[in-house]
Backbone:
């Protein structure tokens, strides 16, 4: 009996320990060290290296633009930070969200340049647990979409009842804005731009586990358990795929056909489930988050045509 009890205790410790490791790997983002003001964060990986010079140029140019720092309090008491770049007073505003473990500056400096070229202002958000914003737990859109709704309310109060807002996101940011758009929105929100978002936390986590050559169902069990025990949230409580049928504003989807991190089929799934006016633009040869860089003019044209104002 004592041996059986010891075995059971060891099994429980092993399960809880494995769940904790999975939680730390998937959802926990440690507090960053104070950044060198001259340092420019660039996405790592061979697919991004050919574009590092252009990304560096975009970041330096965006840093020189006049901007206003803004912040909100989340539903659970965190302070999130953003920067507002005004093109002209009264111009439509793109409220933009970066990807998993990214930063607003790293992932969205090029988007600020695009906004200005299209006559729009840009409000770029550091998501919870990233960069200057508070928090340590990334939730794959579960809590982030509620933060997005807070930013929408903030923008309407800050810029007035006549402001027009376009929700824009890349990667996890795209999933964030899709999930937010599935909830009731003020009439100020006129559309969504979702670039390479995933369909659900479960699907993208299982996809990553498969790429690691591990059993996806067993691996996901421990990841989900870690999220629930140590992060206080359930990855299956909501998803972009669940939100899509409830979206009431036009949605423009982008996705690279050579995306190995978030497969293009996930945007196709979100597109198919969406019942609002919609368009899916796929870019041959583009890896994750590279549609704009690989086909800048085509990207511009699609945005102009779909959101003419």
Residues:
């Amino acid at each position: 009996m004592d041996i059986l009890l010891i075995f059971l205790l060891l099994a429980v410790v092993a399960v809880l320990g494995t769940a904790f490791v999975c939680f730390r790997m998937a959802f926990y983002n440690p507090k960053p060290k104070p950044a060198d003001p001259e340092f420019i964060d660039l996405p790592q990986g061979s697919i991004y290296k050919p574009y590092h010079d252009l990304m560096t140029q975009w970041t330096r140019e965006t840093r020189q633009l006049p901007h206003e720092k803004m912040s909100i309090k989340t539903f659970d008491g965190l302070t999130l930070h953003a920067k507002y770049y005004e093109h002209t007073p009264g111009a439509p505003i793109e409220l933009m969200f970066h990807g998993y473990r990214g930063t607003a500056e790293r992932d969205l400096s090029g988007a600020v340049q695009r906004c200005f070229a299209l006559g729009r202002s840009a409000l770029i958000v550091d998501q919870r647990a990233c960069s200057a914003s508070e928090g340590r737990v990334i939730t794959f859109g579960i809590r982030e979409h509620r933060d997005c709704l807070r930013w929408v309310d903030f923008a309407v109060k800050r810029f007035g009842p006549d402001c027009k807002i376009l929700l824009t996101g890349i990667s996890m940011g795209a999933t964030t804005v899709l999930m937010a758009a599935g909830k009731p929105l003020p009439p100020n929100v006129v559309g969504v731009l979702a670039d390479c978002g995933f369909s659900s936390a479960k699907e993208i986590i299982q996809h990553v586990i498969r790429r690691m050559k591990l059993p996806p169902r067993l691996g996901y069990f421990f990841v989900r358990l870690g999220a629930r025990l140590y992060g206080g949230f359930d990855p299956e409580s909501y998803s972009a795929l669940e939100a899509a049928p409830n979206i009431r504003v036009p949605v423009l989807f982008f996705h690279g056909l050579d995306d190995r991190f978030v497969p293009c089929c996930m945007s196709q799934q979100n597109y198919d489930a969406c019942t609002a006016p919609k368009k899916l633009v796929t870019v041959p040869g583009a890896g994750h988050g590279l549609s704009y860089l690989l086909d800048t003019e085509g990207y511009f044209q699609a945005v102009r045509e779909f959101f003419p104002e």
